[in-house]
From TrEMBL:
Protein name: Methyltransferase
Membrane topology: Multi-pass membrane protein
Species, as recorded: [Anoxybacillus] calidus
Membrane-crossing residue ranges in chain numbering: 40-57, 69-89, 123-147
Chief subcellular location: membrane
Amino acid sequence: MIFYAFFLFIIAERLSELLIAKKNERWLKEKGAKEFGQGHYKYIVLVHVLFLLSFWLEAMLQGAKLSPLWPIILSGFFITQLLRVWTILSLGRFWNTKILVLPKAKVVAKGPYRWLRHPNYTVVAFEFVLIPLLFQAYWTAIIFSLLNIIVLSIRISVEEQALCTMTNYNSEFHKRNRFFPLRPIK
C-alpha cells in the first residue's frame, strides 16, 4: 500500500509539472521565446518514462519492500521536493521542461540560483537515486542515474549556450565558479 501511494504521488507530481510547463510555454512563446534542444528533448522524456516503468517493475518484482534506511532516504526525498518547489517558484513563468529562452530577458539569480546554476537538474539527479533506493530498486538507481548524466550533459550544454546567446546569463553566471558559485573564477 505504501508503494502504491508513493508511486501515485510521483505520477501526480510529474503530471502537475507538465501542466505548469505547458501553461508557462504558452506564455513564453506569446512573449517571443525561442525553443532550443528539440532534438534531445524526446530522449529526456523517454528516460523519465522508462525510469518510472523500471522503478515500478523492479520494486514490484522484489515485493515493493521499503529499504531498511527508509527514514533517511525519505527525508532526502522530501528535501529534494522542497528544493524543486523553491526552484519552480523562483523561476515563476520561466520554469519549463523545455529550453525556452526569452530574448534579452534577465536570468533568474534568486532563490536556489544564488548557489546552483541548475537546481532543477540537481533535484532530478537526486530523485533518480533516492526514489528507487527507497524501495530497493538498485538497478534502476544505477542505470537511470547513468542515463540521466548522459542526457543532462547534452541538455545543460545546449541550455547554457542558448542562455549565453540571448540573455545576460554570461555576465550573471560565467564569472562564478561552476561548483562553488560564491567563489569567483580567477
